[in-house]
Amino acid sequence: MQRQNKKENWKENMKNWRTVLKNILFLALGAKAVLSMDGMLVKGVLVFFTMFILYDINKVN
Predict the structure, then answer these.
(1) Mean pLDDT, residues 38-60 taken together
(2) How far apart are CA 28 and CA 8, in angstroms?
(3) Among 2, 29, 31, 35, which residue is least crowded by beta carbons within 10 Å?
(4) Helix (H) and strand (E) counts for the chain?
(5) Where, by residue number, does the polypeptide cross the bilayer (predicted)?
(6) Count of domains for the chain
(7) What is the dihedral of CA 32, 36, 40, 46, to 10 degrees?
(8) pTM above 0.70?
């Protein structure tokens, strides 16, 4: 019973992660479109989001 519950939670988490990643990608593309004249800022934002995601994944594990 416990194992089944864990599997369900994992599936839910994966769904949430996909949504979060899509949102971040959307935001990053939006930021890139708005700030296309300032490439360094876009790179900084992307790096920040990447670090944030990696930190979050490590925290979960």
Answers:
(1) 78
(2) 30
(3) 2
(4) 2, 0
(5) 20-35
(6) 1
(7) 10
(8) no
